[in-house]
Amino acid sequence: MNSSHSEENKSKSNSITSESERQLIRKKVSSFVYPVMPENNEYLRNKSQQLKIATNLYELKFVDECHKLTLFSIKINPTIADDNFLLKRQINNYIESYLPESFKKSFFGGNILLTFINDEKNENIKKIELKVNIKDIEYNIKLIKVKEIELKKVNNFQGYNQRIKTVIEILFRNILMRNPNVIKFKDRTIFEIDPKNISSIMSQGNGNIYRGYMTSANITENGLFMLINNVNKIITGKTALKKMEEIRNRLKNEKYSIKDIEYKINEYFTTHRTVLTTYGSLKPYRIQEITFDKTPNNTVISYYDINKRSTKIPLINYYKNQYGIEIKDTNQPLIIAQKNFKNNKNLSEQDYIIYLVPELVYITGNEDEDNQNNRRNRDKNIINKTKIDPTKKMEAINSIFNLYKSNRHKKIKKRSGQEIELKSPQELIKEWGINLGNNLIFDGRIINQPKLYYKNNEINPINGLFRSNKPVSSNEITNNNIFFIYDSNEKINHKELLISILRKCQEKGFKLGKNFDPKLIKGYSIDNTNNWGNIHEKLRSINLNDGYQKKIGIIFASPQLEKYYDKLKNYFLKQCKIPTQHIITRNIDESRKKIRTVNSIQYNIVDQMNIKMGGMNYYIDFKESKIIQQSDIFLIIGLDSKYVKKKTTYSMTSTKHPKLNVFITQEETCNNSIKEEKNNTLKKMFRNAIEELKKAKCPKSPDYIILYRQGGNEIHNKRLTVNELDNFIEVLNELKEKNKDDNNFNYKNTKFYYICCNLKSNLKFFEVNENTNINTNINTNINTNINTNMNTYTYKNPKSGLIVDDNVTQKDKYEFYIQPQFVNQGTATPCHYQVMYYDKDPDKEKDLKKENLEKLSFYLSFYYWTWSGAIRTPAMLKMSSTALDFYFKCLYDDENGYFFDVPYYI
Q: Topology of domain 634-770+795-891, per CATH?
């Protein structure tokens, strides 16, 4: 009894601590101060190529003659959890019904109210107090006036305008919802769907691609803009129940237990799946969990009748009463799409959970096919429909922009049968006094490509064509440090394919051991590839642990073996500690008639083999490019994390060579609920990264440590910085104190940079075609842009190395966009960099200039060895993200929740 009582008290104290920690983090986030922008490097800036860039940002202004906008903050006692949307909606409805006529053009956005006050009698209202009783709980509501805003000056953004930005985003999404035949997707995306034909399309089992669009408000140094982007969503013709049955049958054949099958089904749906209902308003939901304890037969939910009275009703009867649908399988598991109960004990279970029946929802996204030809044809068809060129992309975006000017009204029918007509988007925009302008055009910069140094050559990469050069260093290939695995049922001469690859190795400068004979290389055939059990049994019979270092395995992946890529990689790394190189045989075999294609593929394979065996392909001379000083030493780090099963796993890739082209990756898992454990994990990894540089015989402590963190939006980046930054600074301070008497490694001059990278920016950049008829008065001023008739102009993707650090950025933030990759199909997405912290030098001599950091970040994107060209982020960040995904796919033990030790060169 005493034991259980102490455990209960312990859990209560933990919950109180975690809540106080959350409040502290919120306070730190709200008081976060961005670093000051450094000086420009005019030399590097002047060497850039100038070009005109169009964007998908549209000018957003409030008309001068409009009334003042009044901002109220809303305080509710007792407090409501942030994600308790049900209760917030109820209180919102009460506030809206109470406000007088002069407040009717108002908008509720969580903890704030944005409203026009048209009545002079109510202009001086400073506070409104309300009381509302919901489920026998009395909520005291205070509306406190924050300030009045002159709308014509709303573009002079300061801190408080971040709240206005959020409200305007929600406002515009709601305005667009007034259009007919649209549904809301997630939080920020709206998809056009015609309810009349969706059922017939889905019943054919072919699926469809629905074209949609999203909007958001963007604050820039030129004011407020509305960002518009078109997006696509693939809706399959397969129900969630059918997919569950497919997974269950496949895993039964592989002799999985019932518990493991349920876990795998849950993992599949919660990892990357959204479902679309086949009834009502065709609403999409993001899956949170699959519950196997609940069924349509035994689940009771709260149901509001026509008179808005809450009644309890079995789920199976709800669908029959509401939609006239008979559920066929009454014992199927249920999908949980919303959970707020844990954060609000005032709600019952029936109030907080939204259950979905798998039989009545379609899954979204691509589905893998067993037939490789079908999958390739399907993927090609999807690409042709979704990857549109920049000119067509701008036409699509402009057509979305025109929806806001629509005068079409939408009629909706209430449960009572009453039909009401909603205002059109144009009427709502006018009521709010908003004026939509043209899209923004400004001057962008293209910076020079880096020079890549191989053993004997110096080249300038053009569209990634630089594979045929000899690497800086390579490894010796002997009869004993290479072997291959192949499918005996495949009618291909695998030994011949291997010999052709070894010839490319020799051309690239690999050393061949004494008495090397390709015929003596061991090959192991897999006779039965029907399931993983047969393959695993065969691999276990092969003795590969013969003591040779830097061994590599070549796996010739037939369509059957290709399905087990993760399991094969998993086996060789866990059991044998051997890296593998997978070669898809059909790609090699089909391309052998095309000399250039087969050379490109095989050179790519050889480059990857060299890195996995500890070699070095090429390097970039950053000092010659005048990015860094001759005596400077840099340590570059990429950091990513993933949250699974109440544990956080960090993956960190860091450089261990002055040329920044040799890396080591480490990973650590810690308990997410124990802050001290997370802090110690980050400190340990950071110390290891610094120590690895010292072990590599670096002559002195690094002058600069630049950490690229996989980030997200502005709020997410702030939270990451508040949670992580102090740990890195603390380690550096410890090293400074510990090594203060060491002349070479005292770390007193080390400058630390913490940079968040967002790969999911919806901002697009297009180069305006020079041959088009553009207004000659175009300049960087916001008031000058192209004609609204976008169809008369053509656009193209910018060249590799586009840098944007003004016009679309904010004045008080150190941020920039880089588009390193050249794209010839569809449109490219830039990476958004936000410098959240850097050690500012008192005399500014050691501060990295803005252009130096931009160019360094761009050049580092060429160090990702599996791609012949630049990728979207610095290679260290991409490698840490790739390693993190790889650990979870191949090395993570689902049952025990731990990782296996692996060589760093995976």
A: Nucleotidyltransferase; domain 5 (3.30.420)
